[in-house]
Amino acid sequence: MKALCWAGVNELAVQEVPDPAILNRQDVVVRVVASSTCGSDLHLLDGYVPTMMAGDVIGHEFLGEVVEVGPDVRERRVGERVVVCSIIGCGRCRNCRAEMWSLCDNSNPDPGFLETLNGHATAGIFGYSHAMGGFAGSHAEYIRVPYGDVNAFPVPEGVADANAVFASDAVPTGWMGADIAGIRPGDVVAVWGCGGVGQMAIRAAYLMGAERVIAIDRFPERLTMAAERVGAETLDYEKVDVLDALKEATGGRGPDVCIEAVGMEGHGTGAQYAYDRIKQATRLQTDRGLPLRQAIHACRKGGTVSVLGVYLGFVDKFPMGAVMNKGLTLRSGQQHGQRYIPMILDRMSRGEIDASHLLTHPMSLDDGPRGYELFKNKEDGCVRAVFTP
Amino acid sequence: MVAKRSIAVAALAAAGVVAVRRARAHSGLRPGPAEWFAVTVACDPAELSAANRPDALAELAEHHEVRITPAPGGRGTELAVRSADGSVRERVRAIKQLLETGEVLRVEGQPEGHRTVLGRAALPVTRQLMRRGVR
To answer: Which ranges carry the Alcohol dehydrogenase-like N-terminal domain (chain A) (predicted)?
Structure first.
């Protein structure tokens, strides 16, 4: 079959690879119908995730049709249209049972690297390096899904592929960012990053009762999309001082909740940004942290900062003084998608959540390398390129 | 160029890991190599004791000191093995997986594209190292 493979730093190639097979009795095999680019893939492309190897199939946000089920699969059936959570859970360990699926004890068979780096390993992720389990990704014609009963969710009839594909990652991640922040009716929420995850966090914040949501980015088309499609007020950080603007917009208090949906390769302006770029380029720090520092600085006293952007290792100049002295709550995590996906699909079928506008560039899998170029450089207004094999 | 950069990234990552381990070793939290390797299994202690225990655990107990204790707060059972080398750690993880999920998750045999000569040689070694962990 065809698959999009990582071939080196900033190098992708469509290659012929063997078809997947059932490797464990609870596996299902899915014929991929739609597989999305995701901002977190850019860290793989740019070489910041060290356990990638040439030949790894990438991609983790996808939808398809079940074509084969293992002998111990009880719920899934051949022919079902399913969306699969990008992060793999076993459904039986203590963390999965507590609905903290991305902390699964069993879905990452090769936990050593993360145990050394972080103290403990987290769940396996499709197409996201050998540190995250070395699972083949979804930018392919077929994919093997472990623990099929708990990771693949039937899509209700009437929810289009272009909408449902984002129930795999962008929507539940955004939802979780708002959920773990404990948004209350009347809250003012600020969201850094107007990509797919940021926009879905904005939508979730409103559904949870936020009175105002202020979105921060620099790309005009993304700011426009955040305003028109999910109703955010917007700030272009290249045109205004974000900290001043947020204080002014909140009567000096600062936002009640600050959601960071950017991650380790965030952009910014000024000397702090230049400092981060140099330190990351020379590998003196692994992750750039300007939007995160800004979110902490902006947040109201006693507020909550919710970190959705992917970080791998270490951020320098982390403002712990602000966290401590302002009594902030810091929440974070990879998405616990399985907790939210059934509810999200239900809301999609009722028209309460629509993510289909994120799909700006439907493309053939053959054009995968070009799709990532458009996505990475935000060319042609690209928010998400989604591949069909 | 790309290959060189990849190697440089890998080398720096390895250096980072060594630095973390050194910092940890000097932090006073861990004076020497850990004697016990422990996991918590979501099961009743009775399932890991006496005749009920799985064969893999019985075999392990033939050659290693094994400690089974109830985990606090109803969190299942703590399974600890003394003087666990890499292969023993892999077996302990497998026992936990088998008891909790009914299978030991496999990743060998998945689709993969063109590996470099170096990559083809390095993958099994890297995978084994990551499966067992460094201690």
So the answer is: 25-150
